[in-house]
Write a structure and sequence with these properties.
Blueprint lengths: L2 H15 L26 H9 L5 H18 L3 H24 L6 H16 L1
C-alpha cells in the first residue's frame, strides 16, 4: 500500500471516529455503478474526469444528434427539407462510424454482437 493510500485510510478512520460520516445522504445504500467497461482501459480515467466535469464523449453527442435528425426527418413535410436533413444525418452517421473505428469500439466483440440491438434501442428513444 502506498503512502497516499495509507494517508487516505487514516483520514477516513479519523472522520469515522469523529462522526463526520454519520449523516451522509447515501449512508446504508449501494453506490451507483460507474461502468466504464466499454471504454478502453487507457482512456477510462480521462472519460471519468470528463464525465465528472459534465462533458460527454463525442460519440454520445453524435448518437443523440443522429436520433434528433432522424426524428426531424420523419416529421419533415417537403422534399427540400427532407434532403437537407438526410444529408446532415448521413454526415453525422459517417463521422460516428469513423470515430468508433478510430477508437476501436466498432470492432470489439461485444459491440459486434449487440450492435443491431443498440441501434434499435437508440432509434426507439
Amino acid at each position: 500500500m502506498g503512502i497516499f493510500s495509507r494517508l487516505a485510510e487514516q483520514k477516513i478512520e479519523e472522520a469515522v471516529r469523529n462522526g463526520e460520516l454519520d449523516n451522509l445522504s447515501m449512508a446504508g445504500k449501494k453506490l451507483p455503478v460507474d461502468d466504464l467497461s466499454h471504454i478502453p482501459e487507457d482512456l477510462r480515467m480521462s472519460y471519468r474526469i470528463m464525465k465528472n466535469a459534465g462533458y460527454v464523449p463525442e460519440e454520445v453527442s453524435l448518437r443523440k444528434e443522429c436520433l434528433r435528425l432522424h426524428d426531424l426527418l420523419a416529421a419533415a413535410r417537403n422534399d427540400g427539407e427532407q434532403e437537407q436533413l438526410r444529408r446532415k444525418l448521413n454526415e453525422k452517421h459517417l463521422r460516428l462510424q469513423m470515430l468508433l473505428e478510430q477508437r476501436g469500439l466498432g470492432s470489439s466483440g461485444a459491440f459486434m454482437q449487440y450492435e443491431s440491438r443498440i441501434r434499435e434501442r437508440l432509434l426507439e428513444e
